[in-house]
Amino acid sequence: MSWMAWTLPSALFFITIGCMLTAMTVFEVLRPCVERKGFLPIRTTRGDRLFIGLLGSAYIHLLFIGMTDLPIWYPFGIAIVWLVTVLRWG
Question: Any transmembrane segments, and where (predicted)?
Fold first, then answer.
């Protein structure tokens, strides 16, 4: 892995995503979910909502990086709120 310049934030990011996927897999095995409709216009499962939340978080970060000079912590906070909202009520 010496070809990639790993930083602590990027390593923590990918470790967190891996832990989330592992937790979702275990949770799905223990308690299978049923599709439901929340504020999103489609019926979704837990995995669908996780994917939509992560994708939205990526777009939030890209918008902030491309349009502002604010520190990355602002879009990070907004992305966490977005992800929790989609997972809970999406």
Answer: 6-30, 50-66, 72-89
- Judge whether 50 and 17 are in contact, CB under 8 Å: no
pTM recorded for the entire structure:
0.79
Write the DSSP symbol of residue 3: T
Whole-number Å distance between alpha carbons of 51 and 71: 25
Tokens representing 70 are: 């604010």
CB 44 within 8 A of CB 36: yes
CA 12 to CA 35: how far, in whole Å?
A: 31
Number of other residues whose CB lies within 10 A of the CB of residue 75 = 20
pLDDT tens string 47-70: 899 999 999 999 999 999 899 998
* Nearest residue to 48 (alpha-carbon basis) of 61, 36, 57: 36
